[in-house]
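Re: weekly structure request thread

Next one in the queue (523 aa):
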Amino acid sequence: MTIFPPLKNILQTHLWFLLLISCFVLSQPLLAESPKQTKPTKPIKWQQFDAKSFNQASKENKYILLDLVAVWCHWCHVMEEKTYGDSNVQKLISKHFVPVQADHDLRPDLAERYREWGWPATIILTADGTEVVKRAGFINPQNMLKLLQAVVDDPSPETTTLSLPKSLSTTPLLSNAGINALEQNHLDAYDYKKGGLKLGQKFLDAESVEWDLRLAKKGDQTATKRVLQTLKAATKLIDPEFGGAYQYSTYGDWKHPHYEKIMLTQHKYLRTYSQACMQLKKDEYCQAAKQVADYLLTFLFSKKTGAFYTSQDADLKQGKKAHDYFLLKRKQRFTLGVPRIDTHHYASHNGRAIEGLAMLYQATHEKRYLDAAQKATQWAIKNRRYYGGGFRHSALDAAGPYLADSLYMGKAFLKLYEVTKDKKYLQLSTKTAQFIANQFKNPQGGLLSAVDNNTPAKPLPQLDQNIDAARFLLNLYRLTSNKAHKDLAEHAMKLLATEKIATLRLTEAGILLAMGEYRGLVN
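Done, posted below.
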């Protein structure tokens, strides 16, 4: 069993962001050498990632070709047109593969499982669920033909899969050596020249900033300098005209943004700058959070339903770079149009928006942010709540339920309770935690990303979700003294306390935060 997508380099960091951008980095030389596209025959009839597709693969002695895409992803659009529109590619797929396509936002279990390999992510599996190859980013027709034929000729799995250790930690606490390693990794990963992490791509790593804020509160002046430097640098990814935060910047600086605006990024900006506003008492951080919140309320909020949308595309015209568009002033942009907005309503995305806006209300006391958060909460309760206290992802889930929906709605309820003191939110958060305990516990430790989906590719525990779940449950225990919440937090933390897992990434401040919060409650 794997816990998260295997790392091609153990110095890689957060799966949420780093490999989302590989589609840009990897695609440049491939696109340049792409041969002339042959005319398509018939469009590929994409199927769902479900038991039916695996059964067909088994019956027809074929492989599963999973194309995992995001609707806001530029290179996903290009690959759909150039690669999967190629007749030779189509013929080879038709002969040997069951083509499956999944939307990153619609399938949070697959998004977490293959985050390192996107977007687009190309995953080839056997009918029994064995992963043969995984590839990140755009693949041109010529290279796709070579890849597919290589699998047909030799379907031996690549030896890059990182397996879950046979036994996880028996304690929720990481060893002192493990803590020391994480603390050193945090320092070593920092870019003291430009702020943020020492990587070729720049993004707001919210947990690293939060850890430094915690150190700064204790009087650590070097941590304070890191916070101030990163917060200043990361504002360069806030759209000066529409507001909202771009996902990342390339070329090792903060000056070359890629323009998609996804809810995860907005949530991290709201959370981080609201925290900084409250702790450091600097209005510039409040204003940065407001720029993100006002974007959400203008572009990603449905006045009709009271719920939040999912994301906004990086392209004005799909598959065509929109750099010149984003250099324009607001009025000029509106004259040309607005990049497509994904108007789906997902519980997990609404939970993130609700929590972020509630934190901004906590920092600014501007009631409009709380009002929007409460409207979205009412919508989610009415339209996405399961019997038993959990939440479905969409109106009709492709699989699920998924941990992400209940987890981020539970966190949203808890933040609303903290800022309003309305006990109904605490009760809702408690019910949601109980649903998580009933549905997602992995026997070895940690929480699974979804319930069993009846495919050979069984749900796995994902590191980021278990960090967030542990911190949510510890906070809920702090407010309720309900031992069941502490017990479930400890179960999730067995995954985090397994040293092989905890020290895998370039830096993992989220685990440091969880461990610190746990010690503060039990000591």
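The longest helix spans residues 263-280. The two ends are 34 Å apart (CA to CA).
Next request, please.
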